[in-house]
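Database export, one record per block. Field names are fixed; values are copied verbatim from the stored entry.
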Amino acid sequence: MRQSENILERIATQGIVLGDGGYLIELERRGWVDSGSGREKVGTGKGSGQFTPEVAIEHPDALRELHREFLNAGSQVLQALTFFGTREKLNRAGYGEQTEAINAAAVRIAREVAGSSALVAGSVSRTQLFEREGPSAAGHVRDLITEQVRLLADANVDFLILETFFHLEEMLIAIECSRASSLPIIATMTFRPTLSQCSDGHSPADCARAMVDAGAAAVGVNCEQEPDRMLAITRKMHKAVTVPIAAQPAAFRTTDATPCFTRLPQFPDEMEAIQLPRSSFEQFAQRAKSEGIQFLGGCCGCNAAYIHAFARGLAASTAIAQRHVG
């Protein structure tokens, strides 16, 4: 059953809700997921799909344990591992016929671990079709995302997180498809190759306004950038809209010349060399409230230790605020 208090009510009550971290890269590090680097030129969206979530049916105990670690570290939301879970993406990796089973198992495992302690979000990601085929793929994208949203709603997720969309046009399709579920929608864009605009040329502020107008209850940014660099994007979104802002940074150090970790030569098999210290996440959490961030989580490279650092930072921020009030 879904929790009686939804994500928006929890944000309103608490001010900031702490999400979880990244699943696929962490599970790849543990040996349960294929990075795809041996199968395709990673990052192009061509060939068979990298980082697909079949672990939900092939190694459920590994996924269950990672959920437990995030919950123990302080996560108040667990994302079902349904990222890259559309039928076409799974088909490229040889799992298309298991689309229903993978999505259902991922939600079931997250729900088992969450119990009454956390909300469960269904993760809906970009399809990669806009990268491979361009806007002509819009109809196919709509069909794929409509199907996945239906699977997630049928599995009883509490809300939807639409994440890692490079193209605003594809994100708006995803929001349109998601509205039919009547579930709350948190929509987060990913900015690549620059911080100033998404792949189809829209600024962070324009993306935020368009996502809210389309029906997102909270908007923000996820992946590609580390916390400090992500602030350049969230600040512009916060100024543009009045809904809660979400931030899910990556735990990898980027550069001014290449502000996206998936464009660095270390991706995907040498990322230990660019891993951030946990202190950067703790410091980011301390600033979250003043920056207008109300849903805080992590993305690629963010394991339970980083979520624990987030929790420490939020606790420190609350303690400082209480001392000022006193």
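Remark 1: Residues 42-47 have pLDDT under 50 and may be disordered.
Remark 2: Residues 212 and 308 are 30 Å apart (CA to CA).
End of record.
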